[in-house]
Specification:
The N and C termini lie far apart (52 Å). The chain has helices at 31-53, 57-76, 126-131, and strands at 28-29, 78-79, 93-98, 103-109, 120-122, 139-142, 145-152. Strand 6 and strand 7 (145-152) form a beta hairpin. The chain has three helices and seven strands, in the order E-H-H-E-E-E-E-H-E-E. With 153 residues, the chain is an alpha/beta fold. Helix content is 32%, strand content 21%. The protein has two domains: 9-79; 93-152, Transcription elongation factor, GreA/GreB, C-terminal domain (Chitinase A, domain 3, Roll). The longest helix is centred in the first third of the chain and has 23 residues, at 31-53. The chain is elongated. Strands 5-4-3-7-6 form a five-stranded mixed β-sheet.
């Protein structure tokens, strides 16, 4: 049977949990991003202590797995300092203007910081790859139409 059809363990029945996959991309982060990673590690350490006190083995297993992931992300974090630039780069906030006049703003951040609903996109996201290197006034072709870089900071 293909592994695609086998249920992954959740640790509840003693089977090992699947490890969280660490991205193959460089772990670029903003200054805020490294603070978020550190906060995740601290939160998980507190949860681990509570789970150990309660002797909650499935929780211990899950939290230890999550801690391995976040400790690795912290260990490999490459903080990219914010610098003023006239081209879009990692850490830039860019405003895009659509043909109908609507505007959308994105900040290009690290993978763990990304939250598109709040305007933060990963530097490895397709739209970020199109934007990096663009300057104010440049037209960028997107699948849903062309946009113009109308603001950059």
């Amino acid at each position: 049977m293909s592994r695609a059809f086998v249920k992954e363990g959740d640790g509840a029945e003693g089977e090992p949990l699947a490890e969280l996959q660490v991205s193959l991309h460089r772990n670029l982060v903003t200054a805020e991003g490294v603070v978020q990673i550190e906060a995740q590690v601290e939160r998980l350490r507190g949860e681990l202590s509570a789970a150990r006190s309660a002797d909650d083995r499935p929780a211990i297993q899950r939290i230890q797995r999550d801690l391995r992931y976040w400790n690795e992300r912290l260990r490999t974090a490459e903080v990219v300092a914010a610098v003023a630039s006239d081209v879009v780069r990692f850490g830039s906030t860019v405003t895009l203007e659509k043909k109908d006049g609507r505007r959308v703003e994105y900040r290009i951040v690290g993978e763990d910081e990304a939250d598109p609903a709040h305007g933060r996109i990963s530097y490895v996201a397709p739209i970020a790859k199109l934007l990096i290197g663009a300057s104010e006034g440049d037209a960028i072709a997107l699948p849903d139409g062309e946009v113009t870089v109308s603001g950059l900071r």
